[in-house]
Write a structure and sequence with these properties.
elongated, mainly alpha, 91 residues, 0% strand
Length: 91
């Protein structure tokens, strides 16, 4: 059975609430794909920290990822503590 998409169809690249285009999305995996719960959470947390480091605000992250502001704050603080323990320095 051929599961490829028809060649002469037009598909909208609507993106998601975080990024306007799927084709130019920087996420390593679509946020709507369903990896294992732990793997998905780790991916989400890494992405939150990365986007925050690039200047995205806590409230914007919370809304975009569908979590509470406190969850974003804990994620960012936990990553900072982990880096301190590991001796990782930020330039």
């Amino acid at each position: 059975m051929d599961e490829s998409l028809p060649q002469h169809e037009h598909y909208e690249d609507d993106g998601c609430d975080l990024f306007p285009s799927c084709l130019r999305c920087p996420l390593p995996q679509c946020r709507y794909d369903k990896p294992g719960r732990r793997a998905g959470k780790e991916l989400r947390n890494r992405e939150m920290v990365r986007l925050h480091a690039e200047g995205m605000g806590v409230k914007e992250l919370a809304h975009g990822f569908g979590v509470s502001v406190r969850t974003v704050q804990r994620t960012i603080a936990g990553t900072a503590r982990h880096h301190e323990k590991a001796g990782v320095r930020h330039e």
